[in-house]
Here is the input.
Amino acid sequence: MPLLANAANTMRINDRRLETVAQNLANVETPGFRRMMLVEREQGVAAHVVTRPGSLTQSDNPLDVAVSGDAFLVVVGADGQQGLTRNGHLSRGADGTLQSGGLTVMGEEGPVRVARGPVELRPDGTVWQDDNQVAKVRLVASPGGARLVPAGNGVYLTPDALRPSADGKLEIGALEGANVDQLREVTTMMTCLRAFEMSQKIALTDSETRKKLTDEVGRSR
Amino acid sequence: MIRAMGIAATGMGAQQNKIDNVANNLANVNTAGFKRSRVEFQDLMYLQNRAAGTTLESGGQVPVGYDQGLGVRSGATQRVFVQGSIEQTDNPLDACIEGEGFYQVTLPNGTTAYTRDGSFKRDATGNLVTSDGYLLNPAITIPTNATGVTIGGDGRVSVTIPGQTTPSEVGQIQLASFANPSGLTAVGRNLYTESAASGTATTGTPGTEGRGALQQGYLEGSNVKVVDEMVAMITAQRAYEINAKVIQGADQMMGILGELKR
Here is the structure.
């Protein structure tokens, strides 16, 4: 029954596509969130992270930075695992480290640590206190959306080795939002619904044809 | 589509938190020393339906996995400790902090709380207290016969006593600073208490080691910006709406499924 199986498969894929739309729209205001895109492949569906930059909003917080260029910040969790993030909403931890989403931001030489008092970040990633450079934030090149695995909390993991970024810069006093385009998501949702509806019609027609086949053609006179 | 509904519901919940937060910021737009807070969203964990790099029956590898996100959550409400607007009051017992730092006050139970609200008063015995009557720490007592009070930038409090030619110093206000002021616990009444995230307080003279200097006769207003809050409210409302649409979409899909069997 290839027709019915095909229709069921299309419905399943569109269900998943709607889940991706829901995920993207739920995170429309999550700083640094990268939208997911579902791609159909011969072996099933795959989810890509789309690395296109999100929109910037100005903020007067000196610890808010937006990464510009095809680059990521590097963060490390308590378990020592390193991840990539575009969430530049930085804060200070109780241990004096600079943090993004509760994870420690890495510098060129280990975690970025700052003393009490005002901190100044500069576009080249250097961190200054009282006219002394205390650290330089590590910026790495994006390994590409297909090589990123989302881990939640704005963090992405990659199996690739991290390379220094060629064009990564920081915009100080700005925040990068999610790169979710609401219009695109709503359009995708509408096409999902229609495709789902059509598959249902195909499945119905198929089952009616089959019914006719057994009821009428196969009727013994 | 049941999952899509759940995901969209997390989105609606998160936007609800944002609106609640906007309401609190706007309600305190004229509260002295109030620091606005901001809700931070984080994407929730992902389900790895097909991990990238796993080997298929055909011998090839999955080039890109299929990770399904499970929505969003409000990770934290962060207090933004940027300077609020400075307003002139000409009241000699008002003093604002120009820069980082907190006044220390002693709560009735003996513990210390911290505040940016420098609108001090005198109690019956002449001690400097907050509007709620909590003692400033270290305690500063103004003699009852004093005619003038001067608070210096470094926190020194001097009074003029009738019959004396030189003002006499009655104490020095000390400020507390924290490694991570955003980690302080807000307890209401313009007060904050120390938490594990804020780190321990270090106290010192105003105007030293990154602590701000005091300015007598001025009060620090809130740092709430009404325009920013309005924009936040509109975006949150729209995001709430669009997440509701996803729930409707998922509902329609389930309806279609229901009609499949006649």
Summary: Residues 226-260 of chain B form the longest helix (35 residues). The mean pLDDT of chain B is 90. The two ends of chain B are 21 Å apart (CA to CA). Chain B touches chain A through 73 residues (CB under 8 Å).
